Amino acid sequence: MAKAIAICNQKGGVGKSTTAVNVGSYLAIAGLKTLLIDLDPQGNATTAAGISRSGLEKDTYAVLVHQLPALEAIRKTSIDRLDLLPASLDLAGAETYLTSVENRETVLRQVVDPLRASYDFLLFDCPPSLGLLTVNALVAADSTLIPVQCEYLALEGLNTLMHAVNLIKQNLNPSLRVGGIVLTMTDFRANLSREVADEVKRFFKDLVFNTAIPRNIRLAESPSFGKPICLYDPDSTGALAYQLLTQEVISKEGSN
Ligand code: ATP
Ligand code: MG
Q1: CA end-to-end span of the chain, whole Å?
Q2: CA-closest residue to ligand 1 atom 8
Q3: What is the pTM for the complete model shown?
Q4: pLDDT per residue over 1-15, tens digit each?
Q5: pLDDT tens-digit profile of 112-153?
Q6: Which of 55, 63, 65, 111 is nearest to 88 (CA)?
Q7: Ligand 1 in reach of 215 Cβ (< 6 A)
Q8: HSE-CB of 185 using CA atoms within 13 angstroms
Q9: Which of 61, 93, 116, 134 could form a disulfide linkage to 2, CB 3.0–4.6 angstroms apart?
Q10: Is the dihedral of CA 213, 210, 146, 176 positive or negative?
Q11: How far does residue 218's CA lie from ligand 2's centre (Å)?
């Protein structure tokens, strides 16, 4: 039965989609069948996984709003064992739709629970907000993976996020855990990056993964080629870091 991980942080541009696509790829390469579910209308994970968003009709929106069977929308990617439920700009309309239905927080859970038998991991790439799409991801997930960018104000918003996770745990999804915090875009030559990393570790202790993701131009380039880093530049420092992070995710989730 699949473990479901919501990759979330309401702060924009912290590395959620980069983490979703690259951890997803390395899970698949490690032999684990993985479904990446793009929950962001920006569709960055979709593009980065090599699927074109133009003319996309069978997408997360159709599944959540028009009850299209997920199996009809799920696509194979260029990586064996990595599948994708793609998103397009239409998904922006899903927030409004969800506010109008009674089971607004559990629509995604109902869609993904039947898929758990076919996968080892489900990864949700969340949008940069704490709106209903993110709430649906947290309700459907077993754990969260929170990327934190090593920059000024990194901790800002994390308390709000933790509060939201706790509320959902108390009210809608008792089995939800904070799976871990991953420091992203680190540059330990810079004092600020080191200070922020130390501060996050002081605050969140064991929740912080040992592996930090360095700022690496190859990671930033790869989405424009529609390739995860394992295909674009498997020897880059970014690739190595995501490989190590994935190993930590596997051992952490395996022990839960
Ligand atoms: P959003 O909140 O808009 O969905 P996000 O949290 O998903 O953003 P990403 O899209 O993964 O963040 O990353 C933001 C930008 O930073 C992208 O242009 C991405 O290519 C780049 N980026 C992400 N991680 C790294 C890294 N480790 N090194 C260099 N660039 C990175
Ligand atoms: Mg994103």
Answers
A1: 13
A2: 13
A3: 0.97
A4: 999 999 999 999 999
A5: 999 999 999 999 999 999 999 999 999 999 999 999 998 888
A6: 55
A7: yes
A8: 15
A9: 116
A10: positive
A11: 17
